[in-house]
Amino acid sequence: MDNKFSHFYQRSEDQRRAIIADAAHLDETELQLLKYRAETGDAKALIENYVTAYQLPEGVAVNLTLNGRTVVVPMVTEEPSVIAAASNGAKLASDAGGVTATVESRLLMGQIVLQNVSVFASVDDWVALHRQQLLDVAAAAHPSLIARGGGPRRLRVRNLGDGFVSIDLFVDVQAAMGANMMNTMLEAVAGVVQSQLHPNTLFSILSNAADQSLATATVSIPVNHLATSQMAGKTVADRISAASQVAQLDPYRAVTHNKGIMNGVDAVVLAMGNDWRAIESAAHAYAVTNGQYRGLSQWQVTDDQLVGTLTLPLPVGTAGGATRVLPVAQVNQRMAQISDVSQLMAIVVAVGLVQNLAALKALVTTGIQQGHMKMQLRSLAMSVGAETPAEISAVTTSLTGKKDPSEAAAKRALQEFRM
Ligand code: NDP
To answer: Does the UniProt entry include the keyword S-adenosyl-L-methionine (predicted)?
Structure first.
C-alpha cells in the first residue's frame, strides 16, 4: 500500500483531499468542488475518512391518499421519472379512494450460530430448558428498550446441517431498525451459550431477512379510470394484470418488475435516513420465498376493478441509526407527518405499489420510453453542460423526436443556443 495513505483516518479533511488529489491527479477545480461540498455536509462523523458530501436530489411525490390521509412523500433519487411516476400512480389510486396499508408484524430476528454440533437435540433441549434465562440476559443487555415497551420475545433453534445450529432470537425493537440493539443482545446471549452449553459459537448477528416485519398495501381501481386515448380501461387493466402474471412466471421479468418497485421504495427509505441496503436485501430475499424469484406485487381484475397488492419486509426505523443525525431526514419525517414507525412502513409499501402501477400502465400502453425520454433528455442536456432552465429547454427541444439522441447532438444544440 502506498505510504501516503498510512494513518489516513488521522489526517484532517484538507490533508485527506490533498493526498487524494495528488494520487489521482485531480485538478484544482475538482479539489475545490470536494472542499466546497464538504463544507455543506451533514453528520461528517457518521462515517470514516470523510472527504466530501455527495449530493442527491430530493423531490416529493404528491397525490398520495393513504389510509384516508393525504401524504406528501419525500423521495431522494438520481433517476428521472421516478417521482413523476409515483405521483401519477398515487393520483390514479387516490381518485379511486386511495391506498390501504397495514403492518402485519414487526419483530427483528437475530442468530447465534454454533459450529461442530454433533447432537442437534442437545442444543434444542438446552435452549428450551434455559429459555427464560436467555431472554432475561438479552433484555438486560439493552434495558432502555424494555422501558419503551419492546424487548426479546422468543427463541427458536434450527438445524442448518453440517454441524451448524442457529439459535434465533426475536426482538420487538420498537421504533428503531434495531440492528445494533439486536447485535448487543445476541452477543450477551452468546456469552452464556458459550460458557454453559457449547464452546464453539461462530458468530452472532441480526438476520436481514426481516420476514417478521411485513407491511402490505392494497388498492382497487375501477377499470374505466385506466382508459387512455388509445385503449379502453378494461384492456389496460387486463394488460396490467397479464404483465403482473408474467412477473410471477419469469424470474427475468420479475427482477425488472421488482426494480421498478424499489425505485420508489429506496427513494423514500433514503429520504428517511434509513439503511436502504437492508431494505433491498430483505425485499429480494422475500421475492424468492417459495423457491422461485417472483414479482413482489400482484394485479388482478375482478368485478371491473383492478386490484393490486404488495407485501414487503420493511425493517425501517424512525429512531436510531442515521435518522436523528441527518437533519434533512428529520424534516422529511415531519413533511410526511410520520408519528410512528408503522406509518413509515405504510408509506414505503404504498409508494412501492403506486410506483409499480404507474410503471406497468406505461409499459402496457405507450411503452416505457415515451415518458422516460423527456426526463432522460433533460439529464442528457445537463450532462453536456446545460445549466439554466433556458439552456436545458433549448437542448431538450432540439433533441425531441430524434430517433437516437446522442451526446454529440446535445453538445451541438447547446453550442448553437449559446451562440
Ligand atoms: P441504534 O444503534 O442507533 O439504536 C437505536 C437507538 O435509538 C438507541 O440509542 C435508542 O435509545 C434510540 N431510540 C430512541 N427512541 C427509540 C424508540 N422509540 N425505539 C427504539 N429505539 C429508540 O440503531 P439500531 O439498533 O436501530 O441500528 C440501526 C443501524 O445499524 C443502522 O445505521 C444500520 O445501518 C446499522 N447496522 C446494520 C447492520 C445490518 O443491517 N446487517 C449491521 C450493523 C449495523 P436507547 O439506547 O436509549 O434505547
So the answer is: no
Q: How confident is the model at residue 1 (pLDDT cuts 50, 70, 90)?
A: low
Which ligand 1 atom sits closest to the C-alpha of 322?
Answer: 32
Q: Which of 357, 343, 226, 250 is nearest to 297 (CA)?
A: 357
- State the Cα–Cα distance between residues 123 and 111, nearest whole angstrom: 14
Q: Where are the alpha helices (DSSP H) in 142-220?
A: 143-147, 179-196
**Measured CA distances, 385 to 178, 309, 410 (Å):** 44, 42, 9
- Look up 372 and say whether it is catalytic: yes
* Pair 64, 71: CB distance under 8 Å: yes
Q: Decide: 177 in ligand 1 pocket, CB within 6 A.
A: yes
Residues in a beta bridge with 240 = none
Q: What CA–CA distance (Å, rounded) separates 205 from 66?
A: 35
Q: Phi-psi region for residue 25, left (φ > 0), alpha (ψ -120 to 50) or beta? A: left
Cross-strand bridge partners of residue 58: 76
Per-position DSSP letters for 279-314, written without gaps between them: HHHHHHHHTTTTSS---SEEEEEETTEEEEEEEEE-
Of 101, 74, 104, which Cα lies nearest the Cα of 86?
74
Give Cα 90 to chain centroid, integer Å.
Answer: 18
Q: Is the CB of 282 under 6 A from ligand 1?
A: no
Q: Which three cell numbers stand for residue 151?
A: 424487548
318 lines ligand 1 (CB under 6 A): no
- Dist. CA 310–CA 349, nearest whole Å: 7
In whole angstroms, what is the distance from residue 166 CA to residue 25 CA?
50
Given the residues 13, 30, 58, 79, the one annotated as active site: 79
99-to-141, 217, 331 alpha-carbon distances in Å: 40, 7, 24
Q: Does 325 contact ligand 1 (Cβ within 6 A)?
A: no
Q: What distance in Å separates the CA atoms of residue 187 and residue 190, rounded to the nearest whole number?
A: 5
pTM of the full predicted structure? 0.92
Q: Strands (DSSP E) along 209-294, which ranges? A: 214-222
Span 46-74, pLDDT tens digits:
999 999 999 999 999 999 999 999 999 99
